[in-house]
Amino acid sequence: MHRFVVHGITRTRKRPSPWVPCEYIFGHKDLKTCKNWFERLMACINNEGDRPKSLMVFVHPLCGKGRGVKNWEIVAPLFDRAKIKTKVIVTNRAGHAYDTLVSLSDIELKALDGVVAVGGDGLFNEILNGILSSRYKASYPPTPEGFGYFGSNENCEEQTRSGLNCSMPTPDSANTTFPGNSTKCDDHEPLLSTSQPRGLEIPSLKQDHLVPFPNDWFRLGIIPSGSTDAIVLSTTGERDPVSSALLIILGRRMSLDIAQVVRWKSSPTAEVLPTVRYAASFAGYGFYGEVIRESENYRWMGPARYDFSGTMVFLKHRSYEAKVAFLETPNTNPLTASAEDDVTGAQPLQSCQRRPRKIICRTNCFVCKEASTSGKNSEGEVADSSRTICENPKWVWSKGRFLSVGAAVISCRNERAPDGLVADAHLSDGFLHLLLIRDCPLPLYLWHLTQFTKKGSDPLSFKFVEHHKTPAFTFISSHDESVWNLDGEIFQACEVSVQACRGLVNLFASGPEV
To answer: Would you state the pLDDT for residue 355?
Structure first.
């Protein structure tokens, strides 16, 4: 009897892995028949165009509790069995992955089907910026009238006619160098009227490179090995290296929104020097930024430093003066609080206003599909022209003292926040969830934070919390008291503008199954 083995996958309800590898043994007494079966199976697999054939893999050896190398050793045989070529690079410093990807020629990049991060959210952010920094050219985010810096396509054209460069700076510019002189680990954790008469416009997608973004073939993947792995949990629903590896091998595909963050000034006295960064999960100022900055002093503690730093920052209970302008969009009804709301207990602590029913993003999400379809032309390709989100955008200002200012691109689920920061955030709808936490008594802030740890709770319903669903916002502070946290990476800025780039990259994922 002649036999051959077919390696496959099967589903299981046992956590943490919903996908597990399995083997099927086939046999026949005739060798020629076995070979014929084998060849037909291989032909079917080779004809599946979504399956990757060549990948670049970055392994972070220090992420989490040093799980990066171990996790890759576990899943590497799966890639070998699937006959996927992998070029493995073990990072030896911060910025290693960024520098490698920036230096890749378009021909080298086009030979790959994707890049995989074996690490946490920070390593993924480094890879994301390394790929997009010189290859995705777009106008800066729109800004409110009187802000003083150009941002829209309309203003961008005017600046171009005046001889100014409105697209993203080249990687040779000093202001696009990724901060690679630190020894940071990549497993950071975020705790828990307009001058645009033609409407808000998403960046133009015309590119000069051979590898334009967005595109339909190049994908990014994550094999979770960090401390929180919020991106993996938000896009797959599981935090399991084997499951993520199998999704990559099978060639799963889904679009992911990316936040483009433009720093105009690093400090109030600094010169205007636009610097562009990208974030896949979260951008936060104040409490979120201080937790990351404080944790740098306790790196020797490992992942526990985030708990310790979070407690230290919480007890300081600092607030920050700032102005935030966001684009109000139709058909969104967030719960907001005004500056005059009493948060001392004289009024109800949580609003009794009826909140709209939450539509949770999941596999084959119809919200993300509708958003994706609206941004494609009649041939199903990403349109070259800018895409209008709303015809009459309106800028709304929010001023005062804030404990934190944050923007969630995705739900940001993690093991301590089972529903994430925003339970109903979608992966590819073209919107950010702007969270403004106004100054309030310490016990109320603690109550707010503890709600994130409870599944099914509503931490955004407090009177001192503003929640706005918006495609773009601008932040201005007259001080440099705090820093920004971009996917766990520190970003010094006192004036920024941020916009959602809808479906900018593709992931080896299919959405959370919740």
So the answer is: 56
